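Appendix B, Record 12. Input sequence as logged:
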Amino acid sequence: MSTKLNKEAYQELTDGNLAWLSKQDDCLEKAHVVEIVRSSTDTYYPSENKWNTSCVPKDGTTILGDFGYQLAMVAMWNVAENGWIVASPQHSNTELGLDSNFDSEYFSERELRKWQPMPTQYV
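Logged structural output:
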C-alpha cells in the first residue's frame, strides 16, 4: 500500500535528487531529467490559483480558458476571427450509445475571464 507524500516531503526528495544530479557529468539526457525533476513538484502539487487574468498569449498558443462554464476549456487566439476559438465538448445519446465529440465555438476577447497554460506533464 502506498500513500501520497505531502508537497513539502516531495519537495525535499526532489531537492535531494537535484543535488545528486548536479554532481553528475553534463549531457543532454541529464538536462532533460533535471528539467523534469525540477518541474515535478508543480506538476504533482499544483497551486490552487494558477489562473492568470492578464498577459494572455495571442500567438496560437493553446491555453485553458475560463469562459464562464463549469469546466475550463481548451482555447487559442484566432487572428482571422479576432477572438478565441474553443474546443467545446458535445455529448448526445444515439441508438448506438453515447456520441461524444468536440465542436468549435468562438468567444470575443472580453469573454475570457481568466486563463492558464496547458499542463505540460505529458509533453
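The chain is about 25% helix and 30% strand.
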